[in-house]
Amino acid sequence: MNIAPQKVEVDADVLIIGGGLAGLMSAIEAARIVRNVVLVTKGLAGKSGNTIMSRNGMAAVLEEGYDGDSVEKHVEDTVKAGKQINNINMVEVFAKTACEAIKRLVDLGVPFLMENGSLLRKGSPGHSCKRFLTVDSSAVRSPQTKGLALTLPLVREVVRLGVRVVEGVLMTDVLKHEDQVVGARGLDRKKEKIWVFRTSSVILACGGAGGVYFLSTNSADVTGDGYALALRAGAGLRDMEFVQFHPAVALGPPRMVMSTAPFADGAVLRNKYGERYMVHYSPDMEMATRDVMARANFNEINAGRGTEQVSVYMDFTAIPEEVMSKNYSDLYSCLKGRQVIEVAPAMHFMMGGVAVDGMGRTDIDGLYAAGETAGGLHGANRLAGNALTEAAVFGMIAGRDAAQRAKRIKAVPKVISDRPLFGQNNGTKGSTLNVSEIRKTVRKIMGKKVALVRNGAELEEAVSVIKDFKKQLFNSNIRDWNELLEHCQLFMMLDVGEAIAEAALKRKESLGAHYREED
Ligand SMILES: Cc1cc2nc3c(=O)[nH]c(=O)nc-3n(C[C@H](O)[C@H](O)[C@H](O)COP(=O)(O)OP(=O)(O)OC[C@H]3O[C@@H](n4cnc5c(N)ncnc54)[C@H](O)[C@@H]3O)c2cc1C
């Protein structure tokens, strides 16, 4: 490899990796306590990751007694959905702090839908009381980026507080000295530049892992890096086998995450023979829960009853046009007169992640995780609205704790940053690999063998293919900066794919979102 990158060294009290809701909240809270806070993201702060793609639903108990609700009930509902394997300490902290986090968002200028002078609270499946709030995104034009209503006010605060924002840097590893965090390192995506951050406290807020799967609802930059960074630093992961799939993503163009609401108005699912197959999967037909429907769609496709595009049909014929145009105006305009579209299940959310305590601390001194990167809150399955609230709550808590820690640490040892970069053996030997081909193959394997219905043989096959790719990648030749970036990114994806497949292999029984068929 003939690259001599420039090295940029930056000191920080707290370093936050990720510019979504968790990262922005961490930065804001940390900057209220210490002066030198740096937020680094491989995209743009507040304009990358899954937060901007979200539907803006947030679950929180704002007032004890409203609709009979209480913090205890939010805890109970979350643990029930998670099949009792949640980190109970996290759940309690989460439910108790949710109201404070929402108030903080309101103070920062995030608009919520209102009713009679209060935040509008609705019911939602799995929540026993009305506690589902919605960020008002009416000012955002594109239906794909409604979450900007949530992030943009936070970006303004980050700037106002003087947080240094570094964009377009792929962070590749957390640096340690004698089991303590001393910094982190990343590669500039545009210039041949290595960024080395010297800090005692790093918060991983890199989101989930949609990019590890062939089809996902996630933003393209969400590729599981937070899990890979934690693994490489020696921190533990948990619950990685629990991956939530969305039942129906329209393959497009445009690619759309379909709401399940039209099923209540008469939309139905059909296979390539025109058969309304949900009759074989649930007495509730298309009103079945999302995981039952996702598995049914997956089964139909796998059994060869899907379309040529590896999908099934969502048929709106029974819904009167005036209902479509009134109730589903965004969808109606995208359909452009079509009554049937092709949809497929897609990876949506990671329940598992980096193991943390109720303060967002991992088992490595100085390393934190927040938002979708952290694992434990949701257990085996997630309730709607709990993910955004999680990012706000634990972003806030981790930001504060990391800043307090930074104040206590007098000096950070010098960063040793000359060890080989993530996943490459100095890049001087071996053959040149077709990285994009490997990426495609791995995503397909994850989408087929580590997806909605799993069995031991296929999981073992997935693990073995991934291990083999890792070996090849480690010994491959890297010719230029772009290839180095691609190798590092792919290596992280392979680590995460392997972690998910290994965890799924270990859990022999079906539980929550993890479904094992007979081996
Ligand atoms: C279509 C869709 C709809 C959803 N709707 C809802 C909803 O209504 N309610 C709800 O509760 N949840 C919802 N979710 C889930 C929720 O949006 C996410 O869990 C949440 O936004 C995650 O926030 P985050 O800050 O943890 O990560 P993200 O918002 O994903 O941000 C991750 C950040 O990390 C950066 N990053 C990643 N890797 C690196 C790296 N190596 N180096 C530097 N930077 C890196 C990214 O560029 C990005 O800035 C939805 C998800 C999707 C996909």
UniProtKB/TrEMBL annotation:
Keyword vocabulary terms for this entry: Flavoprotein, Oxidoreductase
| Catalytic site positions | R290 (proton acceptor)
> Would you tell me the protein name for this molecule?
Fumarate reductase (CoM/CoB) subunit A
Q: Which InterPro entries match?
A: FAD-dep_OxRdtase_2_FAD-bd, FAD/NAD-bd_sf, Fum_R/Succ_DH_flav-like_C_sf, Fum_Rdtase/Succ_DH_flav-like_C, SdhA/FrdA/AprA, Succ_DH/fumarate_Rdtase_cat_sf
Q: Which domain of life is it from?
A: Bacteria
A Pfam family it matches: Succ_DH_flav_C
Describe the location of the Fumarate reductase/succinate dehydrogenase flavoprotein-like C-terminal domain by residue ranges. 439-518
Query: Annotated Gene Ontology MF terms?
Result: steroid dehydrogenase activity, acting on the CH-CH group of donors
FAD-dependent oxidoreductase 2 FAD-binding domain: residues covered: 13-388
Q: What is the lineage of its organism?
A: Bacteria, Bacillati, Bacillota, Clostridia, Eubacteriales
